[in-house]
Amino acid sequence: MNLIKTFHKWLSLLVGLQLLIWLGTGLYFNLMDHDKASGNQHRQRVESPAVDLHLLMEPKTVLREYDNTVSMSLITILSHPYYLLAHEKGLYRHFKSRYSMVNAVTGKPFSITKTIATAIALESYKGAATVASAVELTGPSDDFPKEQNSLWQVNIDDDLNTSVYVDAGSGRLIGHSNDDKRFVDFIFMLHFMDYAGEGSFNNVQVIVFAIFTLFFSLTGLIWMVELGFNGQYKPALLFGRNMAKTRKVKIFDKHSKSLGPLAMSAHENLLDSLLNHDIALPSTCGGGGTCGRCKIKVDLNIKMTSADKSQLTEQELQAGYRLACQHNSDELEQLTLVDVTEAETHELELISSEFISPYIKQLRFKAVSGETLEFRAGAFMRIFIPAAKGSSIPAYLPVELLHHWQDVIHMEYEHLACSRNYSLANGDGQSDELVFTVKIQTSPNERVKPGIGSSYICNLAPGETIEAVGPFEEFYALPSSSKPMVLIGAGSGMAPLKALIEEQLIKNSSSRELYFYFGARRQIDLIYSEHFQQLSDQYPNFHYLPVLSRPEQDWCGATGYVQDKLALNLQQLLLDKQLKDCDQVKLASNQQDVEIKSHRQIETVEFYLCGPAPMMESTIELLESHSVADSVIAFDKFE
């Protein structure tokens, strides 16, 4: 199915582009000046003089000199009579033909030379003209692509770059062409897809396009049927949000105890609808259907979406499990909650908003109620994004950052209400503020909207408010542990790791060793760098290890990818901590060899990861290759 969707999307680009070309060229044909389009602005009619037939040779006499003559006709060229003998004659005048010409008075052979062709051209030209050049063409010309016979092209030096074409075999005036006609011919070429210059609508490009359009329709039909079977068509999507109704859904807890019927809107997914009733299901992707955590149990007749099939096992699907973010209230009468997280909804007021890198902002909020929200470091909150108009460029962009945004696509758009998860960046317990570090997700192209959530909250002005639910504590340091902590992050994955570090050093005054590996592209992207340098100077057990993948020349630190830097140090780090538990240690004269006979997994160091998916996947593979136990690997996956 993914192949069909990909094929359909690429075909939509091809078909849509040609439809736009048809629309534009068709509009031009309706508006253009048809007199100019003919190319005959400087053409005049040439009158043939009367011919005294008594002066002409007998046609029979001429025919005896030329074999294989198909037809014979009397023509006038430059006021002189000639016999035109056709030895091979095409069905149409532009088809391949072969002629001989004879002076009708003297009987001498005659041919169209450069001088004769030029004279014929000037005779048909209205007004004074200067000949720029005259060339013989043995094949089709750009101006008359259907012509299959040799032509004389006589170029006139005028304001329209007029060219006059004369048949080299018969002396027939083919026609005039100029810049106006050439532009119209170009539009015709686009309209009829005559990209090979055949001068015909019946070309291979049109045939291929028709086949592509057929496949585009078929793949679209298959996709539509698949969406229908997966229950993706909702009244709100078909007729607008105002048509969506509120209905009662019976809710049961995991012990099958009834929680009563709850009113839910059909235009919201169940994940958000339950949140409106202070029922928070676990979710780290904010409703994108990629984390697979917001499980509910429903009747088996509820159709499965592609996200359900991707995130749930076959046994779970057959047992009636579905993802709440992928279904709406109009699909079911009741549901059973599988895992519920206790959380409250809060109204938050923005206190300050500042850029800490070209694309990352630090946002500070306080609860409007004045209460202090308690949470463990690493927690996140689910923020409600209302339906609104958005902009891809921040409203309050500092002058010094303008050059970083000059190539970003500027886009004004509208979006529906949704929710997004953002990790808290403070964990020292010394403030009643809620601090977030949010990366503004830019648009890769004009067809894709930028990050709706990040653009909205990063465009808020101090004093404005939003609603959020939480905090949710799913990523946190193991309690009562003294094991060394290795934290690996990049980009906006900084937030929960910063909170964990501050919690250990400032709030808990922990003496455990902390190693913080953080990756960025350039030095300007190393957010909170000075803060961590100060912590490193103040706390000897904290080690700050920044890594740049695209460093400037004056950078003296580590370079490359952060997971590669970790790989260089990981073996020694694990070795140092395992020496105490080794079964045997063999000392050599010049080196120390360590032989570990215990085959149990390594559990002497804790690892905490947060950042882009490729970085985390690569790091987890690295840890697994060193036999690090899953129980000491924690990661905060954001989408």
From TrEMBL:
InterPro entries: 2Fe-2S_ferredoxin-like_sf, 2Fe-2S_ferredoxin-type, Beta-grasp_dom_sf, FAD-bd_FR_type, Flavoprot_Pyr_Nucl_cyt_Rdtase, FNR_nucleotide-bd, OxRdtase_FAD/NAD-bd, PepSY-ass_TM
Membrane spanning stretches: 12-31, 206-225
Molecular function (Gene Ontology), one example: iron-sulfur cluster binding
One Pfam family hit: NAD_binding_1
Domain FAD-binding FR-type, chain residue ranges per copy: 343-478
Top-level division of the source organism's lineage: Bacteria
All copies of domain 2Fe-2S ferredoxin-type, residue ranges: 247-344
SUPFAM superfamilies: 2Fe-2S ferredoxin-like, Ferredoxin reductase-like, C-terminal NADP-linked domain, Riboflavin synthase domain-like
Keywords, in A-Z order: FAD, Flavoprotein, Membrane, Transmembrane, Transmembrane helix, Ubiquinone
Name of the protein in question: Na+-transporting NADH:ubiquinone oxidoreductase, subunit NqrF
Source species: Shewanella sediminis (strain HAW-EB3)
